[in-house]
Specification:
Largest sheet: 2 strands, antiparallel
Structural class: mainly alpha
Number of helices: 10
Strand content: under 5%
Radius of gyration: 19 Å
CATH architecture: Up-down Bundle
Number of strands: 2
């Protein structure tokens, strides 16, 4: 089966670093967030691991940006470059994902609308996590009580929204029957390639550009 190169090795390495850090933050964050896990949250190791995950979560994309600023900036521009096809994608998305109607989906570029949305949310909520996390970590005892409580609240809301989007990301990228039909997108973060069928179905515009080359 024909396969198309989509992600470079450095991009995949940094992606899995980010995933690992996110899972550390997710697990320890749930322990700290859910009252039922109060006994575990009192253990200082939970907070230490959470902070280690936070450092990796911030450093991984920064290192990636420094290492390849051109590619990083291109990804940011693609994430915010919304057009009529993105609106068509959002309109057709329920028919595609719930009814399996592939003909409803308009051709997409290298980053389809769903990926743009996920990337945009990370770009928005990432700095929110960073700022509120720094306030809670380094200024816990010097901040006014109200400011600290608001930092906790905003941090938790951002966590819930990103967690929900993460579940959608995993489901649509790995579990959904339409993903398995075309080889899925998970393999692209393992060996860097996707099937030509998947590329045509989910990134039609990008595939045409690649095919020309």
């Amino acid at each position: 089966m024909e396969r198309v190169q989509k992600y470079t090795k450095p991009a995949r390495v940094f992606h899995w670093m980010h995933v690992g850090a996110f899972l550390l933050l997710l697990i320890t964050g749930i322990i700290l967030f859910v009252p039922a896990f109060g006994a575990a949250a009192q253990d200082s190791w939970t907070r230490v691991i959470h902070r280690i995950g936070a450092v990796i979560f911030v450093l991984a994309p920064l290192i990636q940006i420094i290492a390849n600023r051109t590619t990083a900036w291109a990804s940011v521009k693609r994430a915010f470059a919304w057009n009529g096809d993105d609106l068509k994608w959002a309109t057709a998305m329920p028919r595609y994902y719930f009814l399996g109607d592939e003909s409803a989906m308009p051709p997409q570029g290298e980053m389809n609308t769903g990926q743009k949305l996920w990337y945009t949310l990370l770009l928005i909520f990432g700095p929110i996590f960073l700022v509120t996390g720094i306030l809670m970590w380094f200024f816990k005892y010097s901040l006014p009580s109200a400011v600290f409580q608001w930092s906790v609240f905003v941090h938790d809301v951002a966590f819930i929204l990103i967690f929900l989007m993460f579940l959608v990301h995993i489901y649509l990228g790995v579990i959904h029957p339409m993903m398995r039909k075309h080889g899925g997108s998970f393999s692209s973060m393992v060996d860097g390639t996707v099937t030509a069928e998947y590329a045509k179905s989910h990134h039609g515009k990008w595939y045409k550009e690649v095919a020309k080359k």
